[in-house]
Design a protein that fits this description.
This protein has one domain. It is mainly α. It is built from 11 helices and 2 strands; from the N terminus they run H-H-H-H-H-H-H-H-E-H-E-H-H.
């Protein structure tokens, strides 16, 4: 994989993660991340929107006048989100009802219009599609991790209501921490979402600092050896 595409992958998943670094799209992230399935469903819808909108914007970038680019980008995103909303209503109706207003609100997710404007309108179709996929995947992973943690701590379960997305056979996926686990209500309330996301951001920052310190310790002896020589 070329170095530029490796950078796109790294930016989407870690260095410029939508939820942990850019802090965009936090309203749906915090609102629906009470369970694994809710987070996965909304994350997948957002990922598809990012991939399709980035691809479409990149395809038409040479024909769109700068004065009208933002309205056209919004029109493209709204059309894609409407298509995804109708598809979810048809094939995942119960999950569609659970996610509710947060599916059409994907149109207002700042990260989507930001990627269309800052990346897709300036780069090739392949790179734009990859950027949309990685940005969407990074956002979805945060939704899934946060939803899983809140579900386990708050309700003592994991993969509850998996049948809403994977069919009736997925009911057997349900895992529990035990019948005696009382649950921790704060985890599934809105404050629990803020606390959980804050801890994930803190963990990422700690990992970044640790990696920077490790690189600095490796480079310092090498510089010292060069000076001594």
């Amino acid at each position: 994989m070329p170095a530029e595409q490796i950078k796109i992958v790294k930016n989407g998943l870690w260095s410029n993660n939508v939820a942990l670094v850019q802090l965009l799209g936090l309203c749906p992230l915090l609102a629906v991340s009470g369970t694994f399935i809710n987070g996965f469903g909304l994350g997948l819808a957002t990922l598809l929107t990012l991939v399709l909108s980035n691809t479409c914007v990149s395809v038409i970038r040479h024909w769109v006048r700068p004065e009208v680019r933002i309205p056209i980008f919004v029109l493209i995103i709204a059309s894609i989100v409407t298509t995804i909303e109708l598809a979810m209503n048809a094939w995942f109706h119960e999950l569609f009802l659970v996610l509710g207003i947060f599916i059409p609100l994907i149109v207002t997710n700042c990260s989507i219009i930001a990627r269309a404007e800052s990346f897709a309108s300036k780069n090739s179709v392949l790179d734009s599609a990859l950027d949309g996929f990685m940005m969407g995947l990074g956002f979805m992973l945060v939704l899934v991790i946060l939803g899983s943690l809140r579900e386990m701590i708050g309700s003592g379960t994991l993969f509850a209501n998996a049948h809403l997305m994977f069919g009736e056979g997925a009911r057997d996926m349900l895992l529990t921490l035990g019948d005696d686990y009382p649950g921790f209500l704060l985890a599934i309330l809105p404050p629990g979402a803020f606390i959980g996301l804050g801890l994930l951001i803190a963990l990422k920052n700690h990992i970044d600092r640790s990696l920077q310190q490790r690189v600095a310790h490796v480079e310092l002896p090498a510089e010292s050896s060069g000076s001594a020589a």
